[in-house]
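Tutorial handout. Part one gives the primary structure; part two gives the three-dimensional structure as tokens.
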Amino acid sequence: MKLIRFSQDNTEKNGILYDESMKEISCSITDAFNASNIDTFLKEDKTYDVDKVKILPPVKPSKVVCIGLNYRDHARELNMEIPDEPIIFIKPPTSVIGHLDQIIYPPSSNEVDYEAELAVVISKEARCVEEKDAIEYIGGYTILNDVTARDLQRKDTQWTRAKSFDTFCPLGPCIETQLDPLNQEISLKLNDEFKQGSNTKNMIFGPQRLVNFISNVMTLYPGDVIATGTPPGVGSMNIGDVVEVEVKSVGVLKNFVRN
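Part two.
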């Protein structure tokens, strides 16, 4: 099931995505995660064309927790050792934008990079969760582009400024509630040119381990997002570029780079 948030006539709505159409639901996205029968929330007479509405970020997270260096093939590319435990950092909710929105190139940077990622969406409050129980706290999966001002990251030696600009967290277009997170092809195209590609089976730490690790550091709330790291091929974007991240079971997240 693909859950989606969208806007029509300046009114926010939630729905289920069926190919090129959507059916509205009367509950929130996080309530839909935990519904025993989602059909009871369907508004059968409320069907929308995807091309005639504005797609919104699929959730409004209180925080986006990101993982650095979580693909074995990316570590090999950088000649770096495999970490013993996840490396975490946070992107603020003000960085989140949706499908087809604009990534704004900040004037303080001359090197803004793309990073294609599969993202975990939390379904219920998670604190000190055991790894074996973590699946119960995962509502589904979406796509994220961890946009990074790489020159500022090198300059600061820590990552907050480089990762936190407004618009630096494209998210969407929907949440797939049923997929195998450890066997998903993930890729990125820049101006229709293939740049990144791997399979999530190359992750060092899978989603359940990440929920376990992070929830023992900070409480995760419904709608919070965990970005699971990026595969090889990270590179720079320029003003005027079009960037598309694809996870086949979820869809394509497309954004435009502007000043």
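Part three, for discussion. The chain has five helices and 20 strands. The chain has two domains: 2-56, 64-258.
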